[in-house]
Amino acid sequence: MSIIGDHVLEVAIKDFEKYKSLAEQAFAQLSDEDFHWLVDEDQNSLAVIVQHMSGNLRSRWTDFLTADGEKPDRHRDQEFIELGLPRDELMRRWKEGWACLFAALIPLTGDDLLKTVYIRREHHTVFQAINRQTSHYAYHVGQIIQLARQIKGEAWQPLSVPRGKSEEFNRRMGMG
What we know:
This protein is mostly helical. 57% of the residues lie in helices and 5% in strands. The chain has one domain (2-172): Four Helix Bundle (Hemerythrin (Met), subunit A) (Up-down Bundle), CATH 1.20.120. Helix 1 runs parallel beside helix 5 (126-152), helix 2 packs parallel to helix 4 and helix 2 (46-61) runs antiparallel to helix 5 (126-152).
């Protein structure tokens, strides 16, 4: 189990690093004001998504193996209120949240994957908890990228192979 488990953890960490990086590449294209832009009043701004992800990251990964992933001091509903926080504060929270994740995951070994952890008093294996959070963060990073694309319009710089450029990319990569 350990060799496979170690590989699973390695892949999970790389996936989390990729999601974090993609969001940060989107953030880099935006002005400070863009973080508070709304499609409409029923949608979340980038600032609200960052507030929520940061709260979730801190809550889920602090004392990951020993405490419930929904910490008593977390106020999830408040994460969805536009507080008008400046970009530097949003990024401070973002970085602190991700630091909690990596501090919890990096020391784990494959033998830890079947240990039990709790999220909202519901038991999960470590493996299940990692998968749960991977999909949650991928979802929100997708939202971040989509909002950033809407905000930037034609000035958006793609984060992957641009539309209509696959064949050119494949040739450059020696794949055709």
